[in-house]
User: Fold this.
Amino acid sequence: MTLTLTNIAKTFPGGVKALLPTDLEIAKGEIVSLLGPSGCGKSTLLRMIAGLETPDAGAKIVFDGEDVTRQSVETRKIGMVFQSYALFPNMSVRGNIGYGLKMQKLPKSEIEARVNEVMTLCRLDGYADRAITALSGGQRQRVALARAMAPRPRVLLLDEPLSALDAALRSQLRDELALLLRQFGITAIFVTHDQNEAMAIADRVAVMSQGAVAQIGTPEALYRNPSTGFVARFVGDAMPLEGRVEGDQLHLPGGSLRLPGPAANSEVLVRAEDIRIDPQGPVTARVETVTFLGTHYRIALSGASDTLLIALHSGLSAPSPGETVHLSIAPEALLILPKGVAA
Amino acid sequence: MGQRQFLMLCLLPLAVFTLAFLAIPLGRLILASGESDAGWAIYLKIIQTPRYVSTLVQTVVVSLAVTAAALAISTTAGLFLVRNRFVGRNTLLSILTLPLAFPGVVVGFMIILLGGRQGLVNQLLPGHWVFAYSITGLFLGYLYFSIPRVLLTVMAAAEKIDPALEEAAQTLGAPPHRILIDVLLPALSPALIAAGAIAFATAMGAFGTAFTLATDIDVLPMVIYTEFTLSANIAMASALSVILGLVTWAMLLIARSFSGGTVAAGG
Amino acid sequence: MMKSVTKSIPLIVTLLACAFLLIPIIQSVLAGLTVNYFRGLSSGLTLKWVARVLELYSGSILLSIWIALVCLVVTLILGVPAAYALARNPGRASRVLEEFISLPLAIPGLALALALLQLYGTLQGFRTSWTFILVGHVLYTLPFMVRSVLSVLAAIDLKVLEEGAASLGAGPARRFFDIVVPNALPGILAGALTVVTLSIGEFNLTWMLHTPYLKTLPVGLADSYASMRLEVASAYTLVFFVMIVPLLMAMQWASARAQRIMQ
Assistant:
């Protein structure tokens, strides 16, 4: 289902602008992530697509050519997975999954068949008659997904689907979720504050901040070509290099770096994996801490810039805390982005 | 229909019922109090009539005495039961909370059985002491239904006290009675105030007990009753009811602001 | 020595309080079953007083049961949907409404009865009907039903559950019956038992509202205390105990259960 959102905004009573006027287009079968810190408006946007919040006047929400802006949530034929799953405690797993089908007034036999089909897909066979309270976190998440999918909705909306799980389970289920969504072939929009989740599952990611979409694009595009300092920081944890720009040189407290282009009135950022420990490097820094992470070392450096820099260093050994090292950064790896508001 | 309309529909039956049988009658009661020859000055008249003032004072005094006694007894018993598990504890607890469901008349009867002419005390004590029909009997009757109420409130709060507080006091060398005064009672004070307010309000408004114990005891509910049924003095009965209602309502408001909890039933 | 005395004071107080509460109950039970109260147990046990009570007061007892059951039905219909509406709108207005319907708990039954008599006392058909007493009982027990259901609903995340059901196509009425009521059952049960227990024992309101043809159990009790011999009064009290004690225990069990679910 193609989704077109035009001029969607939300102002809460009291004047709080949760979402500034936004346009969004999502293609059939596409998985889009709304990524951002809390308070950026992503959940509000999702809920308006669902019909759980009403947008400000002038908005238009179109599902496959049908204007659903005025329709209530019950009739929009969307599937939603809530952050807390919202499983009905008074029904078994089967009861929960079949509820949407019951609302569609399908014959009993068909409900049973569909429920079984979707349970197999979500690896819930055998759990049909369990009580909700007897399920683990991961099982609940799958039941919530199965319940949303069983009525074959036009679009699947997920509100922080993995945040209720503990870290270990999260990365395992992240891959499963990605696989399931592709298998269903359904148009999906999910909200998250975790960039790894967004990058792993989505076709396109919309990075949001303070009620507006800062940038939308594929994970690679966002990573390699962030359009604002916020996006660079949020996706890939870029760090600012604070210094004086003179021509094509950036003068840092610890030394000077060559810039790839003009950088007046811009800020310069760099990612941890692009900082190299190089005996011939132009910038000096002092090693504060060294953390061994298996595949590489994570080294915190002070003195090169006003703030602490993190470098990722692979190799068999690393410098020790207290040592002075030299750093180099390839000019192409420097991100020069417009200096602006925190967004 | 939309969510909004459905919720309105859900409230409608209750709203209609409350309007017809609570709001309007109460309004009528307040109006009725002003319908005698004295008009609204009837309230002043009450304060100026010694009989009513002494009744009011007597009711307040009895209620205060009962509240104090019930607090003392139930706090002691409550703390004891919360912190000690032993065989028969649950039985004791059941016995102590049983009178919650007794109407005032039954409580009155209980007092008669204990202290009436054919009562237990009269038969056991050589002095032949009949107390049921005196102020002592009334006091004991009110105490009978107040103990369970206060007990429940106090126990609920006592269960929530962090045992670590007491243990900390012990490590600092405090003897049991100091722990009681310095740690336990302060921790319980909101619950004690709430329970006290509830006990006071219930005692002020209790009717059945005084009715059964009949006699010359003058408490406000009985005066209201006689003004209405015997003297047909509707305006006076209404005015006294309004005063009584205001006092008990104010007390319970205080109780709730200190505990936010449940109100025990009966009287 | 001092220590063991102070240690045992709470126990003594507890036991004395229990004795104070329990002894007359035992007296009453015994008196109702003894042939002659004055001669005590030596005169033998009998059920004749209980039989006499059933003969004299079965009408009152049945009326009380009837009113309690109807009261239950009425409070369910008035109270459960209202509690739902209040749970979905946890604002100022809701708290004021909840306060207002709780007035019958705060003001004495006497005052309430007076108010009702003032307004409806002249409506002959209504005044002499059992429904008049029913109204008083509903006024008194409704806040308990509403609060009991409301506290359970407030403890579950009702809004999200409803949104979940709505996203699956359930309209407001469907959600009420499929989601709200089943999840409120512990509160409904506790409320129901409370309503029935309180209704059977209600006196203050009922005494003012009753007529000679409409006597409930507690009204009958007051009668018997005033005019019957001690054995009969005790036997009647015994009948009351037999009815009320199991109800009270069930009510406390159900309330504790609802509390646990809320945690």
Summary: The first helix of chain C runs from residue 2 to 33. Chain C has a mean pLDDT of 89. Residues 83 and 147 of chain C are 7 Å apart (CA to CA).
